[in-house]
Amino acid sequence: MNREATARNPLAGNVSHTELRTAEDRRIRPRPDRTGGQASGSGKRPQLPPVLGPEQWLDDEQWLGDEHIQRDYELLTQKLQMDHPNLAAGTRFVDPLIAFQLSWGAERDALSAWQRIIYDRDHHDVAHFLFLPVNDAGATDPNGTHWSLLLIDRRPERQPVAYHYDSVQGHNDGPAERLAARLGVTSLQRAGMAPQQNSYDCGVF
Questions:
Q1: CA 201 – CA 15 distance, rounded (Å)
Q2: GO:BP terms for this protein (predicted)?
Q3: Model-level pTM greater than 0.85?
Q4: CATH domain 18-23+40-191 topology
Q5: What's phi and psi for 128, nearest 5 deg?
Q6: CA nearest 99: which of 86, 113, 89, 85?
């Protein structure tokens, strides 16, 4: 059963696989080719990203950037659409830049991004599972140092609940809580996972 586009929007009224590359890419800021901000899995069938050559691979200790995570999300979306189309229809792998906008953007911009994520072409709210990258960058400092993951379960038969996966437990609690709150999720649980053993594997986890 789909929730109609007229349903209450949580943003209304709020205040405002690794083989890729470079340590500089960890900065969370829009790129010229990504000004529109379409979340993967939001009604458009993604094209297979080009295969990257050796010159674009990450070194063993380089950090993942937002574009690396987004490329993996595009591949995951395509595979899910091929193997489990019904599940894919209700799953959104959200672009890291859009996740940052949802957390820190002006209310109008965040609301527009939210609507593009959750509504299908017929304006039905069909987004049941949201995968949102979380970074410790902020509005005044766009340079982040750590990635974690927020999974939001929005199935219509229950209240939304968020699960936070952080390989350095506690590091990104604040950013995850902020993002969940801006999306109207009041139940946030810390999910168990293996801790990372170095300073560069957080995006891989």
A1: 33
A2: protein deneddylation; proteolysis
A3: no
A4: Adenoviral Proteinase; Chain (3.40.395)
A5: -90, -35
A6: 113
Question: How close are the terminal C-alpha atoms of the chain, in Å?
Answer: 34
Query: pLDDT tens digits, residue range 178-187?
Result: 999 999 998 9
Q: What is the pLDDT of residues 76-96, one digit of tens each?
A: 999 999 999 999 999 999 999
- Whether residue 34 contacts residue 97, with contact meaning beta carbons closer than 8 Å, is answered with yes
- Tokens representing 185 are 């999720």
Tell which phi-psi region holds residue 154, choosing left (phi > 0), alpha (psi between -120 and 50) or beta: alpha
